[in-house]
Amino acid sequence: MSMILRRNLGASWLLKACYSSSAKPVDSAKTIPSNLLEDKQTAVLQKENGTIFDKRPFKIHLDKDKTYSWCLCGKSKSQPLCDGMHKNEFLKIKQRPIRFKVEKSGDYWLCNCKQTTHRPFCDGTHKQPHIQSAVK
After folding, report:
1. Overall average pLDDT of the 76-92 stretch
2. pLDDT surpassing 50 at residue 48
3. For 34, phi and psi rounded to 5 degrees?
4. d(C-alpha 105, C-alpha 30), whole Å
5. I need a surface site. Which of 38, 45, 50, 62 has the fewest CB within 10 A?
């Protein structure tokens, strides 16, 4: 399906299509994957969001037993994953990567606008007008 059509259908379609195997309408809060390391990492302690990198999520294949580092600062050259750019002392970046694992191997949509409340997974926040207008 083309990106134009996906954008017009809205965030609820994105969540249902990407995170649900059911064709029936589902509660979007239940369809967003969970970070298995959420209680062991600093995702909830870092209140600030990073710089908006893109106004669309990034689809990526993730493996079950692997730990990943999602870029929160928005400066990584290997988006949506961290490449250590936040360590550059001249950039004075406060955010640190979000470490995460997934329950099962498969394709996931990671947030690229860095504004999600379900770090690192896309929750449709990028659909908001201020995010869409921030990136041309």
Report:
1. 94
2. yes
3. -110, 150
4. 18
5. 45
Q: Residue written as tokens 């209680």?
A: 39
User: Which residues, including other chains, have CB under 8 Å from residue 78's CB and lie 6 or more apart?
Assistant: 71
Is the four-CA dihedral 118, 25, 54, 85 of positive or negative sign?
A: positive
The single residue listed with the structure tokens 């997934």 is: 102
Instruction: Judge contact between 114 and 57, C-beta under 8 A.
Output: no
Domain boundaries, the chain: 58-133
CB 38 within 8 Å of CB 44: yes
Say if CB 132 and CB 55 are below 8 A apart: yes
8 A C-beta contact, residue 110 and residue 47: no
Chain centre to alpha carbon of residue 88: 23
